[in-house]
Amino acid sequence: MKHPYLSGLRTATALTAVSLSGAAFAQEGYDLGTLTLSANRGESTEIARSGVTVEVVTKEDLDSTGETLLADYLARLPGVSVSSNGGIGGTSTVFIRGLPGKYVGVYVDGIDVTDTSGPQIQYDFGTLTTADVSRIEVLKGSQSALYGSEAIGGVINITTNRATEDGLSQSVAAEYGSYNTAKLSYNLSYLGTRGIFATTLSRITTDGFSAADEDDGNKEEDGHEATRLSFSGDYALTDTVTVGGAAFWQKRDSEYDEFGPVDGTTDDLSESEEHGLRAFVRFATGTVSHEISAQYYDIDRKLSGTTAWGPFEYPYEGERRGLAYEGQAELSAATLTFGADATRENFDAGGTDGEQDTLGLWAQADWHLSEAVELVTVLRHDDHSDYGGKTTGRVSLAYLPSPDLTLRASVGTGFRTPSLYERYDGWSGNRDLTPETSISYELGAEQRFAGGFASATLFRTEITDLITAPAPAYVYVQSEGTSWTQGLELKAGTQLTDRIDLAAAYTWTDSEDAASGERIAGVPLRDTALTLDAEITDALRSAFTVRHVSGLRDASYALDDYTVADVNLRYALTDSAEIYLRVENLFDEDYQVVTGYGTSDRAAYFGVRASF
């Protein structure tokens, strides 16, 4: 049954997408109409007509490989890498094109979830599982013109579970495996003629393994437990007015091993509780559509434990409030999207506190010059309570010389204001810091063919006035010179047979930190991923993934190259129920992604999913 009002909702239910897993090839072939919601503001855009690179991941992709943590799936994507201090619950940073999390905006159902209480304003992916995720878009390159500060490296937009069938539907999932790890999730959703809603409750517990590498004599377990509840919904009051919103709550407790002269066997604990809320109203006046929204996010964190100097307890609190307006008008020559947003951020870290306000105005023009040419221009001006005005822009061009070939190019400027911690911390803070500024370029091509595609993208980002905290003082200062990242992304997918798909991704990333003259820590020089998806029988499917990483550096150390393989087997009991077996680190590779921190040995997990 088709619901006309849904065409105005930017929800993942209405979309199909193809990503690295390649699972969609065998079922439907490559779809030219694949859409992105993030590359431009306003209405969705065909990826084939987007002048910037965006990766789209669907629920089917996540189920195919069965990853527990969302970050582990993101690490398979070209241009994306992950640095983690241990297992589930350990601090996890996502890099885009060589730039760490402080340069990456992260949104869940439109809520900005980057943590204002941390040393840098960024999101910790170490606790976010795939249980409540239906879609992810990874937008690469400087996006400050659309998303403001922190979006120098890119933006990750996450959509939680949505209703996919008419009426009331439910789904459950349960998993148990190595390290006494247990996962449970329950989803309730509804799709009607005028409304749609979904709510998901999920929980994970694990004894874990030592965050500090066991090979160094650290034998204790670092456990983790977390509970998450989310809600989203939309309701059409009339044919032209829709109200809706989203909310989530998450509480987690994680044991960890911190730095310093310790043996990694102390009972250090990281606790946090997060709340997020967004509400909106959409309406139309004549030929102009409008959206007014408000959002709220807060996080309370506490680190406690014992070091060689004695016990410690550090509380942190962060909060963000925002109001936004977005409008869209169809003009004769272009689609004009425009808006304004006001944000207040604050933090409190054991008596040290700070606050900042930002007001942004922006406009985007989407010029549909012909069936072969799409030009998008964006201009944004932000006024900061302490740093005054900053103007950024982006120009992107997509050229289709044939329906199956896209040539794309873009250039964008960006900025990152110093975090509240970098400015106000009692030990390392520096109130004389100024915003970092950036410019990024990309040039790429994508060829689509029957049963597959191949693409190549060149990229470069330059950052000036980089903020660092060098030893021995560890006080934040501004670096002279220009830091940069540059590289090449290759991606391809094809149908080998009617039942077998192959997908591959390769990224080469070079970089230089102006402060040290070295490559940026945490980013591999070469990163390759291969995924083989096979329909063995009508009921049995398998996904085999192998990833090879080389040239990885962490601070002053070069880490060993490594190769990790995972396999996931799924068996359909009925049309609405399946069981699966997942083996991670199949060949029991011993490796590190952060010096001194361990990774999982070979581990196996068994689970069941059902919907009704």
Automatic annotation (TrEMBL):
Keywords: Cell outer membrane, Membrane, Receptor, Signal, TonB box, Transmembrane, Transmembrane beta strand, Transport. GO terms for biological process: siderophore transmembrane transport. Gene3D superfamilies: TonB-dependent receptor, beta-barrel domain, TonB-dependent receptor, plug domain. It comes from the Bacteria. Transmembrane segments: none annotated. It is found in: Cell outer membrane. It holds the Pfam family Plug. Residues 50-155 form the TonB-dependent receptor plug domain. Coiled coil: none annotated. Residues 1-26 form the signal peptide. GO terms for molecular function: siderophore uptake transmembrane transporter activity. The keyword Glycosyltransferase does not apply. It is a multi-pass membrane protein. InterPro entries: Beta-barrel_TonB, Beta-barrel_TonB_sf, Plug_dom, Plug_dom_sf, TonB-dep_rcpt-like. GO terms for cellular component: cell outer membrane. Belongs to the TonB-dependent receptor family. This is TonB-dependent receptor. It comes from Alloyangia sp. H15.
